[in-house]
Amino acid sequence: MSAGPRLAESAAVVVERPGYHRLTSGPVPEPGPGEVRIAVHAAGVCASDRELYEGNRPAEYVSYPIVPGHEWSGTVDAVGPGVDPALAGRKAVAEGFRACLRCDRCREGATSLCLGGYQETGFTLPGAFADHLLVPARLLHPLPDGTDLTAAALLEPAAVAAAAVLAAAPRPGERIALVGAGTLGLLTVQLLAASSPEWLVVVEPRAGRTAPARAAGASVVCPPGAGEAPEGGFDLVVETAGAPTTADDACRLTRRGGRTVLTGMFAPGARGIDPVRLSVAQLTIRSVFGASSAAWSYAVRALTAGLLDPAPLVTHHLPLSAYAEGIRLASGGAPDVGKVLLRPGS
Q1: Within 13 Å and on the Cβ side, how many CA atoms surround 70?
Q2: Which of 68, 137, 217, 287 lies 20 to 30 Å (CA to CA) from residue 23?
Q3: Does residue 273 lie in a domain region?
Q4: Cα(184)–Cα(339) distance, rounded to whole angstroms?
Q5: Do 227 and 266 sit in the same domain of this protein?
């Protein structure tokens, strides 16, 4: 007797525990009620993926074993019961936070502050370092047919950048500084440049980031302490680095009565903000963790309108089997390494 047709399989990277991963293969998942299945085009590797792999992420923000991958783009290739069949075949991204949509914070639109408990794609729920991904259709952001899915793979960090810009509320003609020119910083620069600032200074110690920051729209790129970045010289300062001193640095760059937005993910032991500076200078300080639905919508609109172009930030494309190499590249800080993408199926 001849064997029947072989069932289609789907590959995925699984981190079983900190420091140990394997490439698995199994049946293609079927979407349940209210879900869609995504054929993943590309998924980005970021610092939080390194934390997950090394075991440095706080226990309440990760569940092992886990398929990582929270920055991704793809195409809807199947829909579950109760989902509009017209979504099949659409290019798309989706929000990572699984907000409850019932608590007070969700009802006021602040879905990234959901009180229903933390659940996120790629950290506590299976992510996109896989051929296929299941997500709730309610979190989907369909994209126009002509969208570059490689660029769209950076819409998750772009949504965080959008959250920072929405919190910052930049006004035309302001003097703006941005601290940190990593992927998040460069995406934020693009969105801030669209607000027509008088001056947009990027403060970044790595010389290799100068050209990308200028290309993103910076007026000047300089190291910390340079004359182009005077203390108290800016109406608005956005911090995206998450380094031990950068929250305090950002506040010191902000003028009296100005605004500071903290977006970087700080580790325990980071330098605190000087309370004397905070009170005497009457600073307005906002912080950003993740992105609300409104920020996702803003990022998608900015991409489709041509105000945001993440594609030049991508420097490496790797297959799923090179996951460990992707983590190494994204962790090394080499000047020629920007965004690293894993490409399922390649």
Answers
A1: 27
A2: 137
A3: yes
A4: 10
A5: yes
Residue in 99, 41, 38, 95 with CA at minimum distance from that of residue 70? 95
Q: Pairing relation of β-strands 91-94 and 71-79?
A: antiparallel
Question: Are 195 and 116 found together in one domain?
Answer: no
For residues 296 and 150, what is the distance between their CA atoms, to the nearest angstrom?
A: 17
Nearest in space to 265 (alpha carbons), one of 157, 140, 144: 157
Cβ(159)–Cβ(315) under 8 Å? Answer: no
Complete DSSP assignment for 55-89: T-S-GGG--SSB----EEEEEEEEE-TTS-GGGTT
Which structural domain range is residue 270 located in? Answer: 159-287
pTM comes to: 0.94
Domains of the chain: total: 2
Residue 58 sits in the same domain as residue 136: yes
What is the distance between the alpha carbons of residues 126 and 133, in angstroms, rounded to a whole number? 7
Residue 267 sits in the same domain as residue 185: yes
CA distance 334 to 224: 19
Q: Are residues 36 and 104 in the same domain?
A: yes
The answer as to whether 300 is a domain residue is no
Is 160:295 a contact under the CB 8 Å cutoff?
Answer: yes
Q: What does each C-alpha distance from 197 to 78, 189, 263 come to in angstroms?
A: 44, 11, 20
pLDDT tens string 296-310: 999 999 999 999 999
Q: For 185-200, how does the pLDDT look when each residue is reduced to its tens digit (9 = 90+)?
A: 999 999 999 999 999 9
Q: Is residue 320 domain-shared with residue 202, that is, in the same domain?
A: no
Cα distance between residue 7 and residue 308, in whole Å: 40
Tell me the C-alpha to C-alpha distance, in Å, between residue 185 and each of 70, 148, 236, 261, 266. 18, 21, 14, 12, 15
Nearest partner of 221 among 236, 205, 243, judged by Cα: 205
Express each pLDDT in 224-278 by its tens digit.
999 999 999 999 999 999 999 999 999 999 999 999 999 988 888 888 899 999 9
Q: Do 259 and 239 have their domain in common?
A: yes
d(CA 211, CA 201): 13
CATH number, domain containing residue 145 = 3.90.180.10
